[in-house]
Amino acid sequence: MDQLIHSHGGIHCMAWDEWEQLKAEARAGSERMRLNMLEPQPSGGGAEGDLKVNQQDLAAVGDSAFRLFEGLGKHGRGAAASTQEAAKDLTTQEFELGAALSTVEKRWDKQLRSLLDACAHISNHMDFTRNAHAGDEYFIASTLSSIETLDQGFDRGAKN
Question: Superkingdom, according to UniProt (predicted)?
Answer without folding.
Answer: Bacteria
